[in-house]
Write a structure and sequence with these properties.
Elements: E1 16-17, E2 20-21, H1 27-39, H2 79-91, E3 96-107, E4 112-121, E5 126-132
Antiparallel strand pairs: 1-2, 3-4, 4-5
């Protein structure tokens, strides 16, 4: 069973209980938190390796044959591209055995991207969750 420091789902702060850091309750919570952290990790955010992260708002690539696409900040984002970015992110997470389903919905009015996913982890448990960006 894998553990990590538990993050409050709303504030994303580490939680302290009885003067100790709270840990994730089990594999499902551990993997769910890893997925959410991966989905909220912006491209270029980590200064030691700016190539890591999700390209929500990429700087325009000068290579016209291979432009970097933005996920948000454009009127009609390419949903197939968005889904492929998140499938790739899920496939890089250790502990995920199978990606069963992934859908995304971008609301232009609220400027909110919702990613719904269903995955099977290596213990056989199924996680169904939603991450909003």
């Amino acid at each position: 069973m894998a553990y990590n420091f538990y993050q409050d789902p709303v504030t994303k702060d580490l939680v302290i209980e009885n003067n100790n850091f709270k840990l994730t309750a089990g594999n499902t919570e551990f993997i769910s938190q890893k997925i959410e952290n991966e989905f909220l990790f912006f491209l270029g955010e980590y200064w030691l390796d700016v190539s890591q992260g999700i390209p929500y708002r990429s700087i325009e690539n000068k290579d016209r044959d291979n432009p970097t696409k933005n996920i948000v900040g454009i009127k009609n984002p390419d949903i197939n591209y968005i889904n492929s970015v998140f499938v790739l992110a899920l496939s890089s997470i250790e502990g995920i055995d199978q990606i069963i389903d992934l859908t995304s919905n971008y609301n232009n009015i609220n400027r909110k991207l919702l990613i719904n996913y269903t995955v099977r982890i290596t213990t056989g448990e199924i996680i169904v969750n939603q991450v909003g960006v």
